[in-house]
Design a protein that fits this description.
nine-stranded antiparallel sheet, 347 residues, 20 strands
């Protein structure tokens, strides 16, 4: 009987030990799980992201939304520049905690996050799946201060293998997010292309023209000042096809966001260097007016004389709304003359 009581008591003690261990283990596990989210900045499945809202203290904000065609839009208007959103999504998928913020620096980091930090909200459909703040960089520039919303603990976050900071990837300037494509039409989608030259290029032998696609095998060309059906000439098919193909993925270098409206207006009052008008088969029209840009400081020609204009870049007004910078290197190929499209005499 005594042995039976001893065995029962031992069993009870063993069960109590197991229960205590489980309670302590579960509490510890729960505590770990509660702490883990405060340094988990990563969104592993970026394909599920449908909206990203970035805002700063200026105040300025931008909303990036993915539509049903997987096309990203800025504030539900313009298309997003693909490489910019790709970099952002890659950052969200790859960044992770690098280290704790030293105790001595913690309050200073918290203060800067609250006064100048950038807020990032990531959504899956209408559900907020990640909400954090992005701050500055440690002195070694290897990482970025970040903090999860609702926490009071900042961390240094980085992308393993990348030696730099991440704050520059979370910006709110709409023009920097905007797709820089001026025209992205395949030849079979273009109805006509018109180029008008200012005095400078006209004096250098450039003739303004309008080239029009008649059907799948015929193009016609005329001077732009002539009436639509007056003295039109057949254009060489091969030359015309090659020319129309140049308007596939034609891009500006950048949109201008750091110039006063007064200066922009002053530039736009001058005669354009050239004007481009592209009409597609649905009668949609894209326009671009190019203007000379001042040269860089102390920039000279081959003879050492100061340059009058920048030889690499021009300003441009795109679709009568966006002010941009374009490169001669990109647009020189489309600056043709009417005679460039004449059929060969051998034909």
């Amino acid at each position: 009987m005594k042995n039976k009581q001893t065995l029962t008591l031992s069993l009870i003690i063993f069960l109590l030990f197991i229960m205590g261990y489980l309670v302590i283990f579960n509490d510890k596990k729960s505590s770990i799980n509660q702490r883990k989210p405060i340094h988990n900045f990563q969104v592993s499945d970026t394909s599920s992201i449908t909206r990203i809202v970035i805002s700063d203290k200026s105040p300025s904000s931008v909303k990036l939304t993915k539509n049903t065609n997987n096309q990203w839009k800025i504030n539900n208007t313009h298309n997003v520049r693909k490489n910019a959103v790709d970099i952002l999504l890659s950052t969200l998928a790859s960044m992770e905690m690098k280290s704790f913020v030293p105790k001595a620096a913690e309050q200073n980091v918290l203060k800067k996050l609250s006064t100048s930090g950038t807020q990032v909200k990531v959504y899956k459909k209408n559900r907020l799946i990640k909400h954090f703040y992005v701050g500055g960089e440690p002195q070694d520039l290897l990482g970025t201060y970040m903090m999860i919303h609702g926490s009071s603990k900042p961390f240094v976050v980085h992308i393993p293998g990348f030696n730099g900071f991440l704050s520059s990837r979370f910006f709110t300037d709409e023009l920097l997010w905007k797709n820089r494509t001026f025209c992205n039409l395949s030849p079979n989608k273009i109805q006509s292309i018109e180029i008008n030259y200012g005095n400078d290029l006209s004096q250098k032998g450039y003739d303004s023209f309008k080239i029009h696609k008649i059907d799948s095998k015929n193009y016609m060309i005329k001077k732009t000042e002539e009436k639509e059906n007056y003295t039109r000439k057949p254009a060489d098919f091969s030359k015309s096809e090659i020319y129309f193909s140049l308007f596939k993925n034609l891009q500006v270098e950048a949109f201008v966001n750091d110039m006063s409206q007064q200066k922009v207006d002053s530039i736009l009052k001058k005669e354009p260097v050239f004007e481009i008008t592209i009409t597609d088969i649905n009668k949609n029209i894209n326009t671009l007016k190019a203007f000379y840009k001042k040269p860089k400081k102390n920039q000279t020609d081959n003879n050492g004389l100061p340059l009058k204009n920048d030889v690499d870049r021009l300003f441009a007004l795109v679709n009568n709304s966006d002010f941009a910078i374009i490169q001669y290197y990109v647009f020189n190929n489309i600056l043709k003359s009417k005679s460039d499209f004449y059929k060969s005499r051998r034909e």
